[in-house]
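Schema walk-through. Below, the input block comes first and the output block second. Nothing else is stored per chain. Lengths vary across the set, and this one has 356 residues.
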Amino acid sequence: RTAFVEALEADPGSVDAHLGLARAYYGLGEYARAVLEFEKVLSFDNLPRDLLDRAATYDKAAEDYAAGRAWRTFYYAETGIGNYRENSSAATDIFGGAGDHDTFWPLRVGGGWNSDLPKSHSFNATLDYRFRWYDDKDRRNDSDWRWNVNASRPIDDDSLRFGMRGRVSYRGDGQHRNDWGVFASYGLGLGANDRLTFGGELRERRYPRGPLRNRTRDIAELTGSWTHSLADGRTSLTFGANVGQEWATQDRPDGDASFWGVNGELDHAFSGSLDAYFWWSYLNEGYDDERPDFTTDPDLLVIRNDDLWNFGGGLVWRFASDWSLRPTFEYNWETSSIPALAYSSTELWVTVRKSF
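--- output ---
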């Protein structure tokens, strides 16, 4: 570690020194510091939330780089069993259905690729597929493709990243939602334990056909976050915020919208085989137009305003090389000025993940 710190003092933009220091942190069990240092050079989307798997994925790519491999790759597969439950809300009081629950089978597969570009840039790409099969034949199954292509590079102790990303998800009855956009972010390094990251994205959310087509919209979003490493590099603490604007392009009933939110995450690696994490987010969406399709009485028309709370967490036990057991929970709660749009759910699942 000391040798790589001295190398970076002599050449702050050295890719070899940044990756070497990150690998030194990883070898010492300082996983939070390792991820901060790795991401000055590498940048993969769709990695697990836990420090252990994120650090291990980056370490494998850095090892391949040190071995002179032109392409560095990683792959994974994950499956298990879970349960979904719809909780009581204002909407269930109106329509019924509180307590509805269903067993599901989750599947997730994907991978990533990394290679060198001129002037210390790095090419990074990921492809991630997520599927859920529900036991209830009346419930639609979930199918979701996510992709990301970006270039990144260290700038002394900072990092620059820019590229494209998108998502294709199945919405039931033969309908799909297509997202794609361009983004850029700048990570400001503040020593071994801290990083500030600022980003922006322009994207389109498109429903190509069917009754959901009028939900199509363009979105602009700004993000910011602070990540801090503590407990000798074994704990990562993150706070973030975002703000944005949506422009309805297909006569959405609610019109345009603005949104803002805050989020946070806490992760602690107890050892090289056990990790626990917790995350939360809050988002407020305020729409511009009165919603006309819930009442014909002009005195009862309201402008939609939603509050969305999400909480989640889990444990990761690496019980063998490249194998992990992952019990996970998620709680979602949404309130709205239109009670019929309120929603709440609880999800619990256990999966086994294999990394390649």
